[in-house]
Design goal:
By secondary structure, the protein is an all-alpha fold. It has one domain (7-164). Helices cover 73% and strands 0% of the residues. The chain has helices at 7-30, 35-54, 63-84, 87-90, 94-119, 121-125, 130-151, 159-164.
């Protein structure tokens, strides 16, 4: 039987794509992760952290690892603000950069997985993991395409497009 992508699975797919694209595009276009992308990650992971206490997404002896990964972005933000003086200054310190990379490698995937579990529990409970893997693959593909589009923004947008949107112009934007 072939599973159709409808209802909650479709909403989850679109939501995760909308979260992933701007982060990947900005990283590709500017070589930076913008503060609003960081705040999205902090808010999502912090809310999910609280949810794990109210409604544990699954019974696991590793829930403390999940919670540590979820609270890590907020801890990074607060530590950067109070120890380094700001998040911008923290990015000049190797320990903060390493921590931020760990957040992107560990916390973001865990947050995405929990969002899938919360929005589409039927996908997580299926013995067939293909829908969940397809959804994860979709998010990865959207991220790769977003990064590539950002890196090659001069093929899609002009400097004028960035200016009208109130964004800084990337170094490689096409004159327009």
């Amino acid at each position: 039987m072939r599973r159709r992508i409808t209802g909650p699975l479709a909403v989850t797919s679109v939501t995760l794509g909308l979260i992933t694209w701007p982060l990947a595009f900005n990283l590709g276009a500017y070589g930076e992760v913008f503060y609003d992308d960081v705040f999205r990650i902090v808010v999502a992971s912090s809310v999910l952290f609280v949810i794990t206490f109210v409604t544990p997404p699954y019974r696991s002896p590793w829930i403390w690892v999940v919670r540590a990964a979820l609270i890590s972005p907020l801890a990074w933000l607060l530590t950067a603000a109070f120890v380094a003086g700001s998040t911008s200054e923290a990015l000049d310190r190797p320990a903060f950069v390493a921590w931020l990379i760990a957040i992107f490698v560990v916390s973001v995937p865990i947050s995405l997985r929990l969002l899938i579990d919360l929005f589409t529990p039927e996908v997580s409970e299926l013995p067939d993991r293909r829908p969940a893997l397809a959804l994860a693959a979709l998010v990865v593909v959207v991220g790769i395409i977003g990064f590539s589009a950002g890196r090659n923004n001069d093929r899609f947008l002009t400097c004028y497009d960035f200016a009208v949107a109130g964004s800084s112009e990337p170094e490689n934007c096409a004159p327009g």
